[in-house]
Amino acid sequence: MIKLPKFTNPLYLNKRFINYNIHKLNYGHFTEDIYSLPKSNLETITKNKNISIIGYGPQGRSQSLNLKDNGFKVNIGVRKGDSWNTALKDGWIENKNLFSIEESAKRGDIIKYLLSDAGQIENWKYLLPHLTENKTLYFSHGFGIVYQEITKIIPPKNIDVILVAPKGPGIKLRESFINKKGINSSFAVYQDYSGNARNKAMEIGFGIGSKYLFETTFKNEVYSDLTGERCVLMGLIQGAFKAQYDVLIENGHSPSEAYNETVEEALESLFPLIHENGMDWMFENCSTTAQRGALDWSHKFEKVIKPVIRECYEEVKNGNEIKNVIKINSNPNYKCELKKELKSISNSNLWNTRRLIKQIDLKKN
After folding, report:
1. Are 99 and 27 contained in the same domain?
2. Pairing of the two strands 73-77 and 183-191
3. Which of 75, 80, 143 is nearest to 110 (CA)?
4. DSSP string spanning 105-117?
5. N or C: the chain end with fewer CB closer than 10 Å?
6. From 23, 130, 141, 253, active-site residue
């Protein structure tokens, strides 16, 4: 793991000094600043602003609750339905801090646009009239801005446009906040009309419960995020799990053995240790047989996988991947088709085996 050196630098913020810890990371010729918060309760001018959160999905829910718990003035904008009902259960009150999308946007100094990518495209026409001069438009994913030729999400020139992207799902953001741990987030500025957009992004970044902040651009956030989701974070992992499980089954191994050697050991034992200590530590602290084989085969896998990841990155960058995503998501039957697709994964032998093993755990307990 990288140990971060610490020193503090005062950042001037509207005649107030806010101290952030700045950690200098040097990678050869590349130097990067990583920011952390020296105090658990940051008093900032942003707390005096009205923050409207449009959407109450995983990120909207977690970010709004975290900001509220940190003393920020928050209201929710959402259509009546499942998300509205969830907000009511969480303690938001209709006509006090729970409104329609239009009413919430009208009230907000800072408007956090946290609908799904397809939802942002669909509702942009309702939000745009309320993006008046000196307001701030906030994203947690730069999709709508980076692909604006496709999405038609083009903000007015007389507002700030910023981004804070937590490196984890909304449920993890909330869980980490409650447990006083925090997760890392990137932040970026697309448009700095006020001259203070960067500080706003950082304040809100810490307000939602970020442990460390690192600076990026809207394009870099989108390209890295979409590539990661399709590759190492989810797509590649599902493909690798299924491929290894299937090969073991084809060669006569039992379902429980195939599952345990593929998923259980990875998620319960090895991945947490890699996260805690690094890959080199894992190689050094396994048997010599595992060590040598894993090192040798890692190069073969890298050689095979890198061209596929490179292809994925280029498809993300040139917009082809996004056109396909928008087209599919815009299909009114998409949710039904998605359920069928996910059910197919859920009913596969690999994940059925997981459920059977988990049932044994439940009976034992």
Report:
1. yes
2. unpaired
3. 75
4. HHH-SEEEE-S-H
5. C
6. 141
Residue type, 199: N
- How do residues 67-105 score in pLDDT, each as one tens digit? 999 989 999 999 999 999 999 999 999 999 999 999 999
Does 322 share its domain with 187?
no
Please say whether the beta carbons of 73 and 47 come within 8 A.
yes
Structural domain total, the chain: 2
Number of Cβ atoms within 10 Å of the Cβ of 265:
12
**Using CA of residue 107, residue 108, residue 113, residue 115, what is the dihedral sign?**
negative
Q: Predicted confidence band at 163 (pLDDT cuts at 50, 70, 90)?
A: very high
Residue at 304 is within a domain: yes
β-sheet bridge partners, residue 80: none
Q: Is the dihedral of CA 345, 348, 353, 356 positive or negative?
A: positive
Mean pLDDT of 30-49: 76
- Its domain, for residue 190, covers 7-217
pTM for the structure as a whole: 0.86
C-alpha to C-alpha distance for 145 and 182, rounded to whole angstroms: 27
Q: What average pLDDT does this structure show over 109-128?
A: 94
Which residues touch 193 (CB under 8 Å, ≥6 apart)? 134, 157, 158, 159, 160
Q: What is the mean pLDDT of the chain?
A: 90
Residues 241, 349: Cα–Cα separation, whole Å: 12
Q: Using 50, 70 and 90 to split pLDDT, how confident is the model at 359?
A: confident
Instruction: Report the 10 Å Cβ neighbour count for 198.
Output: 17
299 is catalytic: no
Torsion, Cα of 119, 172, 355, 274 (10° steps): 130
Long-range residue pairs from 33-40, CB within 8 A, at least 24 positions apart, any chain: 33/214, 33/215, 34/4, 34/212, 34/213, 34/214, 35/202, 35/212, 35/213, 35/214, 36/4, 36/211, 36/212, 36/213, 37/206, 38/8, 40/180
Residues 6 or more apart whose Cβ sits within 8 Å of residue 159? 131, 132, 133, 134, 135, 136, 137, 191, 193
Pair 127, 23 in one domain: yes
Same domain, 301 and 210: no
Task: For residues 75 and 112, state if they share a domain.
Answer: yes
